[in-house]
Backbone:
């Protein structure tokens, strides 16, 4: 939503600046208006809260009809984020899910990480990885 507002404001600013230049309006006023629009866009971009979010890297069907889901995450910040263990949780909303291997991470290195953990689910399962306030859901077909 915020990205749409920023893009829309930049399109409007471009249109207005073009119209001002076409009407041979004073260059100083054009420069002032353009600078104000760019400052407002920068403020909006800086206010966007950067949080870690989960990704579903792959879903592979096994011979027995279950699915293996490989989960990853993206930390868009420039530093490592450490959350309390309860702030990184897996919720099974429907069906059955088994966590394979290790526990859920609560320390998130910067960048994109594709093999955080795996789950095995039955057909029709709905599983959600919650990291802080961000929810990523796998919803299988029945």
Residues:
């Amino acid at each position: 939503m915020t990205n749409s507002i920023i893009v829309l404001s930049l399109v409007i600013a471009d249109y207005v600046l073009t119209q001002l230049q076409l009407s041979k309006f004073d260059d100083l006023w054009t420069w002032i208006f353009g600078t104000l629009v760019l400052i407002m866009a920068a403020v909006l971009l800086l206010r966007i809260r950067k949080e870690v979010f989960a990704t579903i890297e792959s879903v592979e069907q096994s011979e027995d009809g279950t699915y293996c889901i490989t989960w990853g995450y993206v930390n868009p910040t420039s530093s490592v984020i450490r959350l309390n263990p309860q702030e990184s949780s897996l919720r099974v909303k429907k069906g059955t899910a088994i966590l394979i291997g290790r526990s859920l991470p609560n320390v998130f290195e910067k960048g994109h990480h594709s093999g955080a953990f795996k789950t095995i689910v039955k057909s029709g399962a709905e599983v959600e990885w919650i990291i802080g306030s961000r929810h990523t859901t796998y919803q299988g077909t029945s």
About this structure: The first strand starts at residue 53 and ends at 61. The helical segments are 2-22, 27-47.
